[in-house]
Amino acid sequence: MTAFTPGAERSPRNDFVFGAGSLHRIFSxxxxxxxxxxxxxxxxxxxxxxxxxxxxxxxxxxxxxFGRRRSEVELTTKFGIPVELYGERMRAMFFLMRAKRxxxxxxxxxxxxRRCFSASALLESLHGSLRRLRCDYVDRLMxxxxxxxLPLRISVELIDLAERxxxxxxxxxxxxxxxxxxxxNVLDSIPFDVVQAPIWDIADLPxxxxxxVAYGAYREFxxxxxxxxxxxxxxxxxxxxxxxxxxxxxxxxxxKTLNSWKGLFP
Length: 266
Hints:
With 266 residues, this protein is of the alpha/beta class. Helices cover 38% and strands 15% of the residues. An 8-stranded parallel β-barrel has the order 1-2-3-4-5-6-7-8. Helix 1 (29-42) packs across helix 2. The longest helix has 17 residues, at 152-168.
């Protein structure tokens, strides 16, 4: 495992983040690994995941892909959605397990309606993520779509714990992700280092001093350019001009689509 020393320089990167939220939709692990390798070769050096994506499977795949070259990438993960992590335990049989749960469990998907943001939940989630990612630290740890404001006691505990984890070198920054409505639940109570939101919500959030990361670029492209007169690469490039400090998450499970993004990387 590669340890992070507080104060060390960040790894070379650009402002594009590969969204790994749909990796579990790819049938085989071999194909998932080929997609991640292609993303790296294309130029992505930052990758975004969460335990809730693929019930631990997607973090696991990132760990297999980048555990031995940790210093070359930045990894973001999240906490707060208490899902069962069968994707970690059943990598080869994930599709079978998910289908079984989907058709036999009356409560399938209900865990996504719950949140747990206690300090103990953060630590348990982080340690699990580090295990699956095969590393000793994450670059960004984010609250995953808070549904309501937090009690003051919980907010204070999270602030103190996040600062301690930074000093210990287990996280580099602490943030929140979700829609503007979700983020507003906690934005005034916790000083976040980074905020991740849909690209159409970023401008509506009163963010000062925090890094901003946007997802939903293809949906925004579809809304702005329904006739497809402009290509997606040109559209994303224009976003970089409009908001030069904005980091943009791009996600795909198609190697052909990834190949079409070559123009984004010099």
